[in-house]
Design brief:
Layout lengths: L5 E10 L2 E11 L4 E5 L6 H9 L6 E6 L2 E2 L5 H8 L2 E4 L11 H12 L4 H14 L15 H13 L5 E5 L7 H17 L3 E6 L2 H7 L2 E6 L2 E6 L1 H5 L4 H7 L3 H7 L1
Parallel strand pairs: 3-8, 3-9, 6-7, 7-8
Antiparallel strand pairs: 1-2, 1-4, 4-5, 9-10
Helix pairs in contact: 3-4, 3-5, 4-5, 5-6, 6-7
């Protein structure tokens, strides 16, 4: 697969008088898990929504392989969106649709594939996330961890170049959260996707983060690898990372 670069340049966003993001720039590493971390309310999810086009920034650019998403026309935006997979914080499954129908939804929206081709792709994606045999069930009939896996299956259905995950471990127990982390990491490397994960879960960061950016007070205050993270002298980063005894022990 060819270039899959994502770069944000000087992103600013405010709602009324409330400034949420100020001059945020970050180059995502293609084919890797890129983490955006920070305290609740620091602007992580707003930045993610700016990147996928759910929110328009007040200033700055979001570049997909050099194409400025927000400056593009409708057709170009549609072309870029077809290459984006999205895992929402609450999975965002359609309650009235079965698991099969949820995974098939983007294929029906964006392709002209036959019913058999769509079902074959749905079956493949559900098998990839270890959910064989649940396609007939409704979201209300499966667990929270299974919903996240259905969300991942739907996100990869279109064979995206870019995968965005908003707090993928939110509401999950530690074991299930670890399984979701592993699945995201495996899929990223298996399909050479550029993955962006918004999280404040330091277990996820140290387990699967290839490149990491810390947001604080509306702007980027640090970026680097997880190896750099464990040995940084950045005071804001250390205050965020080493608040728990678990992380303090991990540094020793």
């Amino acid at each position: 697969m060819i270039s899959m670069s994502i770069e944000i340049k000087n992103i600013c966003k405010q709602f009324g008088d409330n400034k949420v993001l100020e001059d945020v720039s970050y180059l995502m590493e293609p084919g890797m898990v890129n983490m955006i971390i920070g305290k609740s309310g620091c602007g992580k999810s707003v930045l993610l929504k700016c990147m996928v086009g759910l929110i328009t920034p007040n200033a700055g650019s979001v570049l997909f392989d050099g194409d400025d998403f927000h400056a593009s026309d409708f057709e170009k935006k549609r072309e870029i969106r077809k290459n984006i997979g999205m895992l929402f914080q609450a999975s965002a499954l359609f309650d009235s649709l079965t698991v099969n129908e949820n995974v098939a939804f983007p294929l029906q929206m964006f392709t002209r594939n036959s019913k058999k081709e769509i079902q074959d792709r749905v079956d493949f994606c559900l098998e990839r996330v270890d959910l064989n045999g649940v396609g007939h069930l409704l979201p209300s009939e499966i667990s929270g961890g299974m919903k996240k896996r259905v969300g991942i299956a739907r996100a990869i259905a279109m064979r995206p170049k870019y995968l965005f995950c908003d707090e993928p471990n939110s509401g999950l127990d530690p074991l299930t959260a670890s399984l979701i982390d592993k699945l995201i990491q495996e899929i990223t490397h298996e399909y050479s996707m550029t993955t962006i994960v918004v999280s404040h879960d330091m277990n996820s960061v140290t387990n699967i983060g290839d490149k990491i950016m810390l947001l604080s007070e509306r702007t980027k205050v640090w970026e680097g690898s997880k190896e750099n993270l464990m040995n940084s002298d950045n005071a804001v980063l250390n205050e965020f990372v080493f608040v728990s005894d678990f992380m303090k022990d991990k540094r020793k």
